[in-house]
């Protein structure tokens, strides 16, 4: 079996699909190496194993809303698309979504997946409790009040157990409008990035770093909080008169509705529609998160590489992510700007270029997205994440035999036992 992008053939010897938590617990207890597989949207081997991969598709796909506590207990194997529909049908919503609804909740949370919004933290920030099957087969529940163990486990890279359910914070459903603006001058972006990124509930800039202007700015506003007429300009950029795809040559049919038409949060916050292939399809991805205050310097550094990017890049997306408290979250205690790169499917060339890109971004403290391609070595990761060593200790404590270990964790965390 391959990952979504098709750039990785998993080495797993078999794939199991338990039909109950009890079956899953039994399977894990008796397994050698075992790893949960979500919707396969990572671009690296984080979800691979030389043992058994476990998919949670056979477990009940439950969403139980507790409106008094404003939480939903959600099966980990659900996709955000399924979860969004179930919540919306009951009048509820999540605070944000990634660019696509196709990804599993557990896989996204475990890798620190995020959307965009200056005051909107990563998707993991909604987690109030997590239920996991440990290496022993024991089922354990960790809650927000549990302190360190909870904070270390939510963004856990699949290293601490198999998540069967989360309790997620929910809020009453809301409507969102989105508009694409074209031709945003770089000068404005660099002069006051916070003003640009903060002018809306979720703002994304799409660019190839060449020229004097950012080709597209996607602005999403909540109708409840930010009602007002559609602006005729966004910092000098003009509203697109037709729906746009972030990639200039692709059909906007794959994208969620634009042109300022209000719609439910789940149909506007992702850029891509559930029924269609998101993004380019045949592609690779890389992303770095760094302190938002460093955005102008970091963006200038990447602009300096524009000529080198041309051959490799489909498009880059610039977003913001508010800080959270999860040890391995790329936005741990840091209001962040996220520089995402959608690459052409040229893996060898992209991997050869990454050290150059990372060297340009290193002075700004760039933390890589765990689910995408990166080359940052362990020693640098340990410097970038204040609780890195604590996470390594947690892994040793909770999975002493390395059942959930894999080549990715050994490479990224270093030898841990
Ligand atoms: C087209 C595209 C667009 C994307 N857009 C965004 C975006 O907007 N923002 C962003 O931040 N990222 C984005 N990503 C990256 C994506 O969100 C992450 O790669 C995410 O991890 C995908 O979830 P998954 O279920 O496919 O994970 P998988 O690749 O299946 O697994 C990822 C990790 O999660 C673990 N895992 C999965 N299920 C469980 C479980 N039940 N218990 C414990 N561990 C588990 C796996 O073991 C593995 O370690 C995008 C990816 C693609 C392909």
Q: Nutshell version of this structure?
A:
With 417 residues, the protein is of the alpha+beta class.
Describe this structure in words.
The structure is a single chain. The protein has 417 residues and is an alpha+beta fold. It folds into two domains: 63-173, Uridine Diphospho-n-acetylenolpyruvylglucosamine Reductase, domain 3 (2-Layer Sandwich); 175-378, Alpha-Beta Plaits, CATH 3.30.70. Helix content is 23%, strand content 24%. It has twelve helices and 19 strands. Strands 11, 12, 13, 14, 15, 16, 17, 18 and 19 form a nine-stranded antiparallel beta sheet that branches. A five-stranded antiparallel beta sheet has the order 4-5-9-7-8. Strand 12 (202-207) and strand 13 form a beta hairpin. It is globular. The protein starts with 13 loop residues before the first strand and ends with a helix. The model has no long low-confidence stretch (mean pLDDT 96). Bound molecules: flavin-adenine dinucleotide.
Secondary structure blueprint with pairings:
Layout: E1 14-16, H1 21-30, E2 34-37, E3 52-55, E4 63-66, E5 71-75, H2 80-89, E6 92-93, H3 105-110, E7 127-133, E8 139-143, H4 148-153, E9 162-169, E10 171-172, E11 175-185, H5 186-191, H6 193-197, E12 202-207, E13 213-222, E14 238-239, E15 263-264, E16 284-291, H7 295-303, H8 306-309, E17 313-321, E18 336-343, H9 347-361, E19 367-368, H10 378-384, H11 388-398, H12 407-413
Parallel strand pairs: 1-3, 2-3
Antiparallel strand pairs: 4-5, 5-9, 6-10, 7-8, 7-9, 11-13, 11-14, 11-15, 12-13, 12-17, 16-18, 16-19, 17-18
Flavin-adenine dinucleotide binds at residues 4, 35-42, 46-47, 56, 76, 98-100, 103-104, 106-108, 110-111, 113-114, 157-158, 162-163, 278-279, 285, 369, 371.
């Amino acid at each position: 079996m391959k990952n979504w992008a098709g750039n990785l053939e998993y080495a797993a010897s078999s794939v199991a699909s338990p039909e109950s938590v009890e079956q899953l617990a039994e399977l894990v207890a008796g397994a050698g190496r075992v790893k949960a597989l979500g919707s396969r949207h990572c671009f690296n081997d984080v979800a691979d194993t030389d043992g058994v991969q476990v998919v949670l598709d056979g477990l009940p796909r439950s969403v139980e809303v507790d409106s008094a506590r404003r939480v939903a207990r959600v099966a980990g194997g659900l996709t955000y698309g399924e979860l969004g529909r179930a919540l919306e049908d009951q009048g509820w919503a999540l605070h944000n979504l990634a660019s696509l609804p196709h990804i599993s909740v557990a896989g996204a949370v475990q890798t620190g997946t995020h959307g965009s919004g200056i005051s909107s933290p990563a998707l993991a920030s909604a987690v109030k409790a997590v239920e996991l099957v440990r290496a022993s087969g024991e089922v354990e529940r960790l809650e927000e009040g549990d302190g360190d163990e909870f904070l270390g486990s939510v963004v856990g890279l699949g290293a601490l157990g198999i998540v069967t359910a989360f309790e997620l914070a929910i809020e009453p459903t809301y409507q969102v409008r989105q508009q694409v603006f074209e031709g945003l001058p770089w000068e404005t972006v660099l002069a006051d990035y916070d003003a640009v990124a903060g002018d809306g509930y979720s703002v994304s800039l799409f660019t190839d770093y060449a020229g004097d202007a950012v080709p597209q700015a996607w602005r999403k506003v909540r109708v409840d909080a930010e009602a007002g007429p559609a602006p005729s300009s966004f910092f000098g950029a003009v509203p697109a008169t037709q729906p746009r795809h972030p990639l200039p040559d692709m059909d906007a049919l794959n994208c969620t509705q634009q042109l300022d038409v209000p719609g439910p949060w789940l149909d506007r916050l992702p850029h891509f529609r559930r029924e269609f292939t998101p993004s380019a399809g045949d592609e690779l991805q890389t992303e770095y998160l760094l302190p938002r205050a460093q955005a102008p310097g970091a963006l200038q550094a990447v602009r300096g590489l524009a000529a080198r990017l041309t051959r490799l890049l489909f498009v880059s997306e610039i977003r913001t992510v508010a800080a959270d408290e999860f040890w391995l979250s790329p936005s741990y205690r840091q209001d962040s700007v996220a520089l995402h790169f959608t690459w052409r499917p040229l893996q060898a060339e992209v991997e050869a270029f990454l050290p150059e890109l990372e060297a340009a971004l290193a002075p700004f403290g760039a933390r890589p997205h765990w689910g995408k391609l990166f080359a940052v070595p362990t020693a640098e990761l340990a410097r970038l994440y204040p609780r890195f060593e604590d996470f390594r200790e947690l892994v040793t404590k909770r999975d002493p035999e390395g059942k959930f270990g894999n080549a990715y964790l050994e490479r990224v965390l270093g030898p841990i036992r």
